[in-house]
Write a structure and sequence with these properties.
By secondary structure, this protein is mainly alpha-helical. It has helices spanning 3-26, 28-57, 60-81, 84-95, 97-126, 136-161, 165-175, 178-181, 190-215, 224-258, 261-274, 279-293, 298-331, 339-347, 349-364, 368-393, 396-420.
Length: 423
């Protein structure tokens, strides 16, 4: 074979790869995924440093209480969302962006106030160690944080629905200011950590509303036609998403009550480190839902997303598994105790990613009832097994519950997908 032929072959292959790369970046699936990945990377990366600094500045018990407060805020936000984060994306092209966005923001904000007040009134009944936010001033700040987080979340989903994931990235950039606030608020103890989160949610929400108002006229009117059209889809996804998100968000206050403040901190840090692995799979799944809602070819995008997830997931799992101990030690020697839990969470990532891939597929196909069934099984298994194993094995008991739940869920998902032809 001639030397000139080999040179020409290499040149042709290089040109093809370069052109293929640029074509991929023009693809809406990959372009939106890129900004979603960058947004999540930024959020998780800043979150990593946030908890790293918090672990150095604050006592482990204070970190444990703060994680329970933050998880409670997020859980209330999901309860108040009523599934509009899914309907925003699925119906924005069908019902018009102004009616969809204004209706979603208005209803979820009012719901956040109602659910937040109810939570504060019932808090002492369900969880111990809740005296901190029963103080009037702290309770009011907690409620304000709930409302700001709700608006922040729904405007972020609005940016995704508008295929404007660049602004979603910028929204998370503003949220990064929470790291700086840890230093001046250290005198408040656990509420200093929570306060840093609350203040930056306020700043990021103000920014998000200003940017969104330039794209859409915000009049906060409720479109009853959109509500009627999307009710079944919204309510189904609301139940499904609540079943999916609530076990992990309930875990810090549950651990706080069952086995202590330090264990709640260990759980939260282990989950924060393991979440680094899930950034790309979650972003690609979200982008798959967006593109499918705009009528793009589902099977083609599923294959593209699956390949991309596999390419990113394998090296991420290997890295975190091998160097997780060093990462945890950065937070402090006390947090190395979470390494066995981190290993189990990391090894479970394949099963978690497979389940998460089916969520957008079923939403695009409007098979919400099947999604509710799957997440109900996940909810019951994860909470039930966690409650049993936490008492017997301590913090690593959650890891056992997490892995067993997602292995069983994978078996169920593969069986149902073959039976009902979901793909």
């Amino acid at each position: 074979m001639s030397k000139s032929y080999l040179l020409e072959s290499v040149r042709t292959r290089t040109t093809w790869n370069t052109e293929d790369l640029f074509d991929s970046m023009r693809d809406p699936l990959y372009r939106n995924s890129a900004f979603l990945v960058m947004g999540r990377l930024l959020n998780v990366g800043v979150g990593f440093f946030f908890w790293l600094i918090a672990a150095r500045l604050y006592q482990t018990a204070e970190v444990g209480v703060a994680t329970a407060l933050i998880s409670s805020v997020t859980l209330i936000m999901f309860i108040a969302s009523f599934g509009f984060n899914f309907s925003l994306i699925r119906f924005i092209k069908i019902s018009g962006k102004e009616s969809v966005l204004n209706t979603s923001i208005c209803i979820t904000t009012v719901a956040a106030v109602v659910v937040g007040v109810t939570y504060l009134l019932l808090l002492d009944i369900f969880f111990e160690n809740s005296a901190l936010i029963q103080d009037t001033s702290y309770g009011m700040f907690f409620l304000l944080t709930v409302v700001m987080h709700s608006i922040f979340f729904i405007t972020g989903e609005s940016f995704k629905a508008l295929r404007d994931t660049k602004d979603y990235f910028m929204q998370n950039t503003v949220l990064s200011a929470r790291v700086i606030l840890l230093f001046p608020l250290v005198f408040l103890g656990s509420f200093g950590i929570f306060g840093a989160i609350g203040i930056t949610y306020f700043l990021a929400t103000v920014y998000s509303v200003i940017v969104l108002s330039r794209r859409v006229k915000l009049n906060l009117r409720i479109d009853r036609e959109f509500l009627s059209k999307s009710f079944s889809f919204s309510s189904g996804n609301y139940i499904s998403n609540l079943l999916y998100e609530s076990p992990s968000l309930l875990m810090p206050p549950i651990i706080l009550s069952l086995i202590g403040k330090q264990e709640a901190a260990l759980y939260y840090i282990a989950m924060a480190v393991s979440s680094l692995i899930w950034i790309a799979p979650m972003s690609l799944s979200a982008s798959l839902f967006i593109e499918g809602s705009y009528g793009e070819n589902l099977k083609k995008n599923v294959v593209k997303s699956g390949k991309a997830i596999l390419v990113v997931l394998v090296p991420s799992i290997i890295f975190i598994y091998l160097f997780g101990g060093f990462v945890l030690e950065i937070f402090g020697r006390d947090y190395v105790e979470a390494l066995p839990l981190l290993h189990i969470l990391v090894l479970s990532s394949f099963f978690v990613a497979l389940h998460d891939m089916f969520i957008p597929i079923l939403n695009i196909k409007m098979r919400v009832s099947n999604l509710i069934k799957l997440n109900f099984v996940r909810f019951c298994l994860l909470l039930g097994l966690s409650y049993i194993f936490l008492r017997d094995y301590g913090i690593i008991g959650f890891g056992y519950a997490w892995m067993i739940t997602h292995i069983l869920l994978t078996v169920i998902t593969l069986w149902l997908s073959r039976k009902e032809g979901w793909i």
